Structures are given as structure tokens and as C-alpha cells.
Amino acid sequence: MWNVSTEQSPRIAPLDPLTSVLGAQSCDHVGWFRFWFADQRWEWSDEVAQMYGYQGADTQPTTELLISHKHPDDREELAASIATSVKTGDPICGQHRIVDADGDTHDIIVVGEQLTDDDGAVVGASGYFVDVTETIAEERNDALSEVLPEVIESRAVIEQAKGALTLAYGISPEQAFRVLSWRSQETNTKLRDLAAQFVQEFRRLNGENTALRSRVDHIVLTAHRLIPHD
């Protein structure tokens, strides 16, 4: 849950909490967003803008713009998710497809949390857009094979974590591996250790699908903090 002051733009805050998690060496397939309920105002990172086919400084995101880029089969679900978030304060999360300005389709996972003010009141939603398009996932798998050879030796637990993410998000195993890889690199955590912690936390989950997905979002963002350190 991100806490920000509503009296100043989070872009000029001394330490942007989303940036601190994402890291300075962020990749163009992961970017952050914020959505403020009161004035229906969106903010997005350059990486998210580029997923939609825009240069970050040239285009102001709006609800209408985001929905217009959703795949026709996914528009109603996203619109309902945004409306529910405004009404209940729940984070925006899920998996959907977007069609960028060039007409190319991207598979996107939205990992979201609540945005709160200094008094703890929910004032919006924040989180990450993760582009898990198959071609990008293949490139990431190749890169990880070079820099993380121990992944091959730890395949069993990684496969379990991939399976859990596949069920929770309704995505392919390759896309699930991309999510694990992102969190491994951004948190500087060994992939096999992160996967093992995911599996342990997933086993504790229960409840109907919406609640499950929200809790999975939380685990994706925080599991690295739960790993015991010597």
C-alpha cells in the first residue's frame, strides 16, 4: 500500500516509492501508474506510455484513452475494474490485452495496490503494468539463461511458482516466468529463492477468485521481503 501526500505531485517527492521498488535500471517492459479517484487523474511512467505507443511527455493518460486502447474483448472488464476501484477503494489488478498506437497487441498484467494519503485514507490506486507479450518473454528467458544458470538446477520449484501464477492470472507459463524474472531482477533476489517463497505463500491463499488475485498481487510485490536472511 503506497502512502503519498495529496498536497504535492508525487513526481517531485524526494523519494518516489514506486521508483524505489522498480529501481533505476528499469526495463521497458515494466512501468508504474497512479490513478487518483477525486479528479480521475492518471499518471504513468515513460515505460507504460511506450507500451501504448506514445512518448511519455507527449500524451496525458485518461480513463478514456486507456480504455480505447484495450482489446475489444477486454474493454468491458477493464471499465468495470476501474469503476469498482473508484467505488470500493480496491486496487486495480488483472490481466488484459492492449492495442498500441501502431496496432500491435500486447499482453499486460496489472499489479496494483491502494494509494493512501498521510491519514491512511484511500485516495487512489497505484502499481505496475508488466508487458508479458510472448516475444518479449522469450528474450527474457534467453537473457536469464545466461546470467542465472542456477535457474536450470532449480527448475522444479520455479515450475510450481509458474503454475500458481498461471492459475491466478490466467496467463501462459512463459508469461508467468516473466513475472518471476522481473521480481527477481528488481529485488536482487535469486530466482529459485523467490520462487520457493512464492510457493510457500500461495499455499496459504484461499477464497474466491477476486480476493485471491488481490492477495497474489500483494505477494508479487512483497515476497522478497519475507525471505529469511542470515
UniProtKB/TrEMBL annotation:
UniProt domain ANTAR: residue ranges: 138-199
Keywords: Kinase, Phosphoprotein, Transferase
Database matches in Pfam families: ANTAR (PF03861), PAS_3 (PF08447)
Catalytic activity, as annotated: ATP + protein L-histidine = ADP + protein N-phospho-L-histidine
The keyword Phosphoprotein appears for this protein: yes
Chain coiled-coil ranges: none
Annotated EC: 2.7.13.3
InterPro entries named among the record's database cross-references: ANTAR, CheY-like_superfamily, PAS, PAS-like_dom_sf, PAS_fold_3, Sensor_kinase/Photoreceptor, WH-like_DNA-bd_sf
Limits of the PAS domain: 44-89
CDD domains per record: PAS
Domain of life: Bacteria
One MF annotation (Gene Ontology) recorded for this entry: protein histidine kinase activity
Protein name in the entry: histidine kinase
